[in-house]
Specification:
Largest sheet: 4 strands, parallel
Distance between the termini: 26 Å
Shape: elongated
Radius of gyration: 18 Å
Structural class: alpha/beta
Oligomer: single chain
Mean pLDDT: 80
Low-confidence stretches: none
Number of strands: 8
Strand content: 5-15%
Number of helices: 6
Length: 174
């Protein structure tokens, strides 16, 4: 089970890229991946949660949604899940999770994500930069990276936005 932060039908969720990789690797191992919006668990007790996992024969949970210490009830639920659980999303205070966390370098993960999109045949990838870098990658280095991977480095695909402008811009691009 992959618990995601948004709706399972959102086009722009980061987890959709993660889920395709997980889905393929799990299928190769004889398992199936299901998605569930973590918000669906907001009013469920620990006993109901673990019973649901057992009834659905869920063997493990990936937490793709990001939580903070103020999300006490959800963290209690996740920290006492009866099956193995792994957080696959970065968290500032990772000690709030009492289970393993698998996170990579934001820079490497970002570049791997762009390479993954290229492997799917995409050649024009819109990227949002804060000032002159994103994920610690300088703009000129990123443009070279795009060229080396056969991707368009069209300046119109590189957007410089504030955090507040990002959500609207992503929806418009999608």
């Amino acid at each position: 089970l992959l618990l995601i932060g948004g709706s399972t039908e959102q086009l722009g969720i980061v987890e959709q890229y993660l889920s395709s990789l997980l889905r393929q690797n799990l299928a190769n191992a004889g398992h199936q991946l299901e998605l569930l919006a973590a918000s669906a668990l907001e009013n469920i007790s620990l006993e109901e949660w673990n019973a649901m996992l057992a009834e659905s024969r869920i063997e493990g949970v990936f937490l793709g949604a990001n939580y903070s210490p103020k999300d006490f009830d959800m963290l209690h639920l996740f920290n006492h899940t009866a099956v193995p659980m792994i957080a696959v999303h970065g968290c500032e205070k990772s000690s709030i999770y009492h289970f393993p966390k698998v996170t990579g370098s934001g820079k490497e993960c970002f570049m791997d994500g762009v390479r993954y999109l290229a492997s799917l045949g995409h050649r024009r990838i819109c990227t949002i930069f804060s000032e002159n870098n994103t994920r610690g990658i300088e703009l000129e280095l990123y443009r070279e990276f795009l060229q080396c991977n056969g991707l368009s480095d069209d300046p119109g695909l590189i957007m410089r936005l504030s955090l507040s402008e990002t959500k609207t811009a992503v929806r418009r691009q999608l």
